[in-house]
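Predict the assembly for these two chains.
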Amino acid sequence: MTPPGRPWWRRLTAIVVGWVWLVVVEPVRDGRVHVRDGPPGLAAITAVAAVGYLVAGMLVLLARPIRDAGALVTEADGLVVLPELSLAPLLLVLVLALILLVTAALHTHWLLRTGAYLLFAVPSLLIGVLAFPGLGLSALLPALLALVGLAVLMLVRRRRRFAWPEVLWVGGLVALGVLVPLVLQQQSIRSIGPDVRALQVNLVFTLVAQVALPAVVIGGAALAELAVRAGAWGVSVVRTETPRRWWVLPASAVVVAAAAWAVWLVLQEPLSVAFSALPLAVGVLALLAMQALRRRGDPVGPEDLVEEWPRLLTPLAVVTVLGGWAASLGPVAEGLGLGRWSPLGDLPTLTFSRLAVAGVGLVLAVAWSGAGERVRPTLLVAFAAVMLNSSGLFAALPVSWSGDRLAAAVALVAVLLLAGFALTRSLTSRRATACVLMAALSACFALRQVLADPISWLLGFSALALTLFGLVWRLLSDATWTRADTPAFPRPARVLLFWGYALLAVTSLAFVALGRQLGGPADVTPFTVLGDHLFGTPVFLAAVLGCLWQCVHRGAAVVPDIAEELAD
Amino acid sequence: MGTSGARRRSVTPWVGTGILLLVLALLSVAAMARPRGFEHAAARLVAVDGGYATMAAADGSRLDVETAHQTGAGALTSAPEAFLSGALALGWELSDQRWVRQSERHEEDGRTAATHRLQTVTEAGLETWVEVSPAGDRVFSPPLPTLVADVAPGSRWSAEGTVSDGSGADIGSYRVDLAAEDADEAGCLDVRQELVVAGRAETGVDTWCPGRGVVARERDGRRWTPAAAPGPSAGLGTANPAPRWEPGRWRAEERPLLRHGTEAVLTSAQPPVAGSDPERLVLALDAAGDLVALDTATPGSPVLWYAHPGGVLTAVRTFGQVTVAATTTRELVAYDDRGRRLWTHRLDDVSQAGPLALDATTLVVADLSGTVTALDVATGAERWRAALDSDLTGTPVVCGDVVVAADAVPGLHAFDAATGAERWRWTPPEPVQTVGCDAGLVVLTDLEGDRHGIDAGDGTTRWRVAGPSTVRTVAVVSGLVVLGTADGVEALDAATGESRWSQPEAPLTLLEAGGHLVLARPAGLDVLTPDGQRVAEVPVDLAGLGGSARLSAVEDGLWVLTAAGTLTRVGP
């Protein structure tokens, strides 16, 4: 029964190796940080950052044994209960992240410099103020000295090229401004009585780690990106390695499995699946509208979408997180007696902010589509459609939507299209492959959490595992932008910013894991879920829209060319 | 030269950044490490923080000893007044002292007497500074050397000095002679003491064991030896009376705690709680981790008893005459209404929410690891134990005959109140935020702000309502679901989830008791009926309490700890 040519086991090996290479190895090879040809000292700084990342990662992975091993310390209100053993390493990686971020900002735009300065100044001054009752002015002196020193350093170095000793100078100033006041405060408060160490770490963490939220959100999209990559390359590799007459077997298996799962889900939750298909419908309509504006279309393959998505992801995530923060200003303003604040009448502020982000995305999509682009508009249309469904506009409906249910709807659409094309005798090889790809994408997207299961097993919590997986994947594969070098944003600054940000994000996760704070006020893992929901689903939806595009247009390559990719 | 210069240039950054990492690590450790205490023989004999020993004599009298390790001046502010006044009178340096507080409870013929000692572990050994007993206060100068640093079998030591009372008035001189010898139990020491104060001699033997402190004592021919805990006294009440409120006549009355003749400013992360007797109040003070019981019916609210459960208290609850404290030492510690330790239960992790009443004799507690345990209130005996799939999220609730708790998977689990068997589980679409219930309905809010009504009997979904606001509190009362949100208060129909009424101002705390709702606002308390009608408005200063108010319900009203740190009784 072995197909002619190479033996079946060789083909199978080629499929597995090729698939793993394309889905996992190649993104890491292309996306990791390169420092070998960087300025002197950059490699050493990167190594120190990597040590910090390793420490923070181990704090996440070993959170349970660390917690069980020793004494616990808490704030006065008992909200944060941390293992005593973890306090110093947590503080160390937080301070290390702060040093990398501030050093990175020395040679960047003044806005970024100001932000970094404030990021350092706020905790530094606050720690000094807290130690003031016990120590008087001497508590504030180190912080003030460090702030003046940093201001001078920023002025002196702003037009110079990066030099590795900068990290030592900034390190000394951050130590003076944060660690020395903490040591003094520790002694000052100890004389009064209560143990404030957990409060101190929590304070620094709360003030610094908010900046890490966009990174956590972006990390949430990693699984969906991998799922789309796995689906697309999976179909491609199998089709390439399988003899033409046998190709129908794995293709049918994928379609039947996806359809069976989708039918089962529809029978369970018919309304929810229908509601979850709304972004698909909105996306199709938007693409049709754009097609009406511009007749010619370029091919859009899933791999193009996955390649492009990270570049859009960061600004979209930052804007979305800022929108969420703006939404929280309403209750704050009300609490301060400034009255109720909602920019769109009775519409909740969160709904408004998400609709606004979706609207901006659509405007950009139309503009880029007009310029002949297809990839970014497709992604932005998918993003806008997902944001529309997640905005809360349909909150009154008794059903909820999810990416998994959307995947079920997509699988059903794929089957219906296959059947429709077959019945109308218009089923071409390209259309069949596009429909199989849709089914494969649905299956991979629905099963994406399996990728994080080994870490889940180790940690015991899927939320922590998902977040850690996303952060590590971003660290390994998302540093392409650090290779560019512009006067406004030189390469060393990019590398340091990348590492500082990554360190901050993984430290915030360690804080949650060590404090057993899942569901608590400091829990960052919901932002991973949010990232998966708002930024992972669009890449899947965009890939599906790309497949639909292939079904109705000629001349487009439906799956990536594996030979070309492996040759690269 | 060129090659070595290039090598030096390439190595220098590695050395420099390595040194930076090392310096940062050392400073981080310095900022977060607490100085290790002395590790001499005397220090090893002192009981651990929260340590407890119970002893009995042949005549039936009992002696209980609790030990606390505390730091700085805060330890003295929550202790007997003589500790602070004695320290101030002698001009001691209070700051940075690592205190050992030993509280003895002597019970004989139904009468209880307490003796408190303020001690420190120094280079010289364990020293006693102040002793407060029914016979009077004694401040030793220099401190009495209870144990010398290198105490061992055969050690002999002595000291002389003066003794004053808590106000600094001279009592006379003292001389103490001590000798240590092997005790019956291996590793333990019998320390014989002959203390002469103002000509009066006191002799006795204390048996010290490593990490356990005093475990046996001999005084005036009587000997107290280690004994099993006597168990709860007969007729011990283990259920709080149900609130029967008539808030129309309520007013606020301050019941300040007088310390050294002035009103004390109390700081506590926990609300004051009272059980069977609403005038006997129990407080968890932030300063030192002590439990303090007050008689608020007497002017000045004198202290009834002090207790040292150990660590920092994360939650304190009362069950009739029993007070139960959860601590950061992963323990649940119970006391009766006379301050006698009833039992200690080891938890898998800290309980932040504290225990809840399951029925008239049983409490249930869930710790952060996700272990849910039901215990007998009076004896601490375990009735059942269950486990969530992962860490606990939010606060568990008792809903009729099921205990409902959420985990981080996320999942909602209902356990049979009688057996702990899982009755049903429900998978929320998003991580759980808050859970509330009555006997028939469980209401869950998720991180998206959606509200879900779930049948408490079988876990089926009754309704779902979307809502973008962050929900802090959920109460189900009289056919209504009342939500304290970041935007205000909303009431939903418990049967359908439809909105019934709302109020725009977000309360600091929403409390449901006695068939009423209490909304704590910065300027005072609003008492509402479940249908949203205000029936009382009690002005109390609650501003500046960091987002939540410290208040608890009692039979005929409320106890409140105001922003100014004053105990206030709200009631008829």
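The longest strand of chain A covers residues 72-74. Chain A touches chain B through 74 residues (CB under 8 Å).
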